[in-house]
Write a structure and sequence with these properties.
Length: about 170
């Protein structure tokens, strides 16, 4: 048995013991938190459903492939691996899609290859922008996310660039 096997059970036990020590009704507080979590899930469901439908439409229509084809000559000329262009296009839109794309890149290229390393850095260092914005803005009932989307996508592009630069510098 490893230490990590005990971390969560020990943490839960410490929280419950501390709550009992402070004379807090731990179960009632847990139920209130679970209720708030469920309410948040219901509040963000429309935004997530819209996002899932949009990702499906973009993928099935061939739009993502078209964008990848248009961008690929430019990015390749700049030193960005051609194999990673589709990952860079998909990462801000779909977490599961980009994970599948990462797996495909690592299968076709060795994980220690230049494209494999750049793809790994992109997967670990960039965000699924539209999902994150949908969750946070949906849960807080905020509107007017145009500037945030623009800044977030710019941060993703910077992440893609620096993934390539970093891999070139250190590996």
């Amino acid at each position: 048995m490893k230490f990590s096997d005990f971390v969560i059970p020990v943490f839960i036990a410490v929280v419950v013991i501390y709550g009992v020590y402070k004379k807090i009704d731990v179960f009632e507080v847990f139920c209130e938190g679970a209720k708030k979590g469920l309410e948040t899930s219901v509040a963000i469901l429309p935004a997530l459903l819209g996002l899932v439908v949009c990702v499906g439409m973009l993928s099935e229509s061939g739009f993502l492939d078209w964008v990848t084809g248009v961008i690929s000559p430019i990015t390749t000329a700049l030193g960005f691996p051609e194999e990673c262009v589709s990952l860079a296009v998909l990462k801000p839109v779909s977490g599961s899609g980009s994970t599948a794309m990462l797996n495909e890149i690592l299968t076709k290229n060795h994980p220690d290859s230049f494209p494999g390393r750049v793809a790994s850095v992109i997967a670990g260092a960039t965000e699924t922008t539209f999902y994150t914005i949908a969750v946070y803005f949906g849960s807080a009932n905020l509107r007017g996310s145009k500037r945030i989307i623009l800044c977030s996508l710019l941060a993703d592009v910077v992440g893609f660039i620096f993934a390539t630069v970093t891999v070139n510098m250190f590996l």
